[in-house]
Every structure is written in structure tokens, then in C-alpha cells.
Amino acid sequence: MIAKELAPGVHWVGAIDWNLREYHGYTLPGTTYNAYLVQGEKTALIDGAYGGFEEEVLGRIKSICDPATIDYIIVNHIEMDHSGTLPEFVRRMPDVPIYCTERAKEGLARHYDTTGWNIRVVKTGDTLDLGGKTLTFLEAPMLHWPDSMFTYLAEDAILFPNDAFGQHVASAARFDDELGRDVALAHAQKFFANLIIPLAPKVLKKLDEVGALGIDIKMIAPSHGVIWRTYAGDILKAYTDWSRGVSKDKVTIVYDTMHGSTGMMAKAIAEGVMAEGVDVRVCLLRDGRYEGTHRSDVVTEVLDSKAVLIGSPTLQDEVLPTVAGFLSYLRGLRPGRLGTKKIGCAFGSHGGMGGAVAQANELLKAAGIEVIEGGFQVNYRPDADELARAYEFGRSVARKVRSR
Ligand code: FEO
Prior knowledge:
Blueprint: E1 4-7, E2 10-12, E3 15-17, E4 22-23, E5 26-27, E6 31-33, E7 36-39, E8 43-46, H1 54-62, E9 72-74, H2 80-83, H3 86-92, E10 98-100, H4 102-111, E11 119-121, E12 127-129, E13 134-139, E14 149-153, E15 158-162, H5 176-179, H6 181-196, H7 200-213, E16 219-222, H8 232-244, E17 248-255, H9 261-275, E18 279-284, H10 295-303, E19 305-311, E20 314-315, E21 318-319, H11 321-333, E22 343-350, H12 356-366, E23 370-371, E24 376-379, H13 384-403
Parallel strand pairs: 8-9, 9-10, 10-11, 15-16, 17-18, 17-19, 19-22, 22-23, 22-24
Antiparallel strand pairs: 1-2, 2-7, 3-6, 4-5, 7-8, 12-13, 13-14, 14-15, 20-21
Helix pairs in contact: 6-8, 6-10, 7-8, 9-13, 11-12
The structure holds MU-OXO-diiron.
MU-OXO-diiron binds next to α2.
């Protein structure tokens, strides 16, 4: 096991979970649980990993020092992908002081038997002097749990913000420039879209707060994925833009189809969007017959789109379950909290009375999307005139997108 140096006396000692494919309801190509060792005259371990990765983290630490010599453990966040190794660490390092927020102390006691643990509660502005390395703590409640906190290492200008600015990716790369700027940002966009959207107002407030501190940030070392050492400014700007709802002239069309009619409408609408020179993504939700687009990849597209169109046939007077499930996921993410509202509308085919389009529009509104029209629906299969109307509908949505 090897560690990776960020700066003299600062090392990554995390774990790589190569085979994790689903977490928090979204698909991923593995991830890393980043822990960091900071050595001054004293040594601090920042964060940990999922239970089961104890030996990997301890093995990396051993390549630097004897784990028994660790003087402090910093718990930035108690979710089990970072705190799962803590019981074993405490067993091996009894009495080691654990620094965390009050809410983290409460939360740790709900996850583990913390009897006898030497927990020290910290607040924003508290510092821990390691001798030549100084850690400053910054509470970050609801980014993304009540207990969350950031830790800042002044001498090396490194911010350890735990989940914030993270990406779920497993690779040999430890740094953004090793993975590649665009790949790292794409993984960060998926992470933001699936976890951070509801917290957008808090992100902007926290970024302002950090800016007001006037601290230099040379490196951002999150708890998942690569460390931002070359493109720290880019990920900070991306978080600001995503939180403000800065989007492209782009329409995401999300649909499922029973006999192909709603699919025909989706394609005709997409042609209309493209005819206006606006970018478009067409995402078929998985219906068991095709390898569709997973909801977590769809919301990643939605994040930087100005419009989202939802296609569903009517089944038993209801929205098709795949589409209803997606809309429920979207509602939970609350894209209405982004600084700029997205527009949207539903469409679909029906055999009987219909109903899915009106319901989907209501679900879009509940997700915070500004519904621009009553919806576009056809009976059974769309004929040539109706496909032409779908094409014109796409053009009209694209013009609205361009004008925003
Ligand atoms: Fe990576 Fe909120 O845990």
C-alpha cells in the first residue's frame, strides 16, 4: 500500500472501491474514500473510509508512519462511507482525541457504541495546532448532512471539504490533472446533480462565507475522487454556476414508451429542437426492453439544460411507472432551488382517456420546473400531421430556450 503526497507532510491515505456500482441511488464506476494524514510535530488523520477498508487505509498510513503515533482524528462527516473505519481505528488507537461538530458527536453515538471515545467538539473558527501545521474548522451544516464540516490547512492552503467538490470515480489518478480536467468536472457534475442540487442555496452561502474569510485555497481535497490541485478554480466556478442554475441552450427529453408512439413524438420534438440550433439529449428511461439511460445520468443532463421535456404514455390513467419514478427522483432533488428556473412540459400518447400528460405536468411543477404549456398529447399512434406538430412544438421550446 502506498500513500500519495499532496504537499510535504500531507498525504492521501484513502481507499479505492473499484467495484461499487450504485450508491445514494445513482450509478457509478467505483469511488474512492479519501483520508488524509497531516504531519507537523503532531499527526492528524482526516476522515476514513467505509467499514471493510480498515486494512487498506492503515496500510497506506503504515507507509508513512506507525498508526499508533497518530495524535488526532478529524471527523468531517459521519456518513458511514467515511466513518465506517472509525471503530477499528479507535480500537487500535485508544484515547485518540476525535475532533468533530456537536451534531457529529450525536450522530456517531447513533451509529456506533462511542462509550469511552475521546470526542472533542469544535465550532467554526476553532483551530488545532499540530506544530508547523495548523488546522482550522468550519462547520458546514447540511452540506450535505447536519454534522458536516470543512477543515482547512493554512500552511499549505489545502481545504478538506469532505463530500463537497467530490466525484465518484475509481482510478489510479489521485489528482485532477492526472484524470484530466474535463473528465474530473464531468464526474463532479454527476455528483452535484445527484446529491447537491437541493443544497444549492447553502452552497452559494458557504462559498460566500469562505470567500469572506480571505483564505488562500491552493488545493481542494474532497473525500471522493481526485484532488483539485490544478483546477481548483474551475471546480469552485462550476459549483457557483451549477448552484446559480447557469445552463446551456440545451433541452433534455426524458421519456418511456409502450408501443413506440411516445418515442416517435420524442424524436420528432428533438428534430424540432435541433432545427433551431439548440442542443438536445434524448433519454429513454429503462423499460426492460432497451438499455436506457439511468435516472442519475438523466439528471446530470438536466442540471445544465434550460428545459426538460417529459414523455409518458398513459397506463391505467397514470404516468408510466418508469417516468413516475424519475419524476419522483427529480422532485426530491428540487431543481427549483437552483438560482435560475428551468422550463418544461410533458407529452405522450394515450389509448383511453389519457391523463399522464396532465399528471406529469403537475409532477414537474412539484419539482420546481416552470411548466410552459398544457402539454402535447396524441391518441394512439401519431400521424404525419401530429408528428409535424411535435416537430413545431420542439422548435417552439427551443426558441424559448434561446430567449432565456
Ligand atoms: Fe461520502 Fe455523505 O458521504
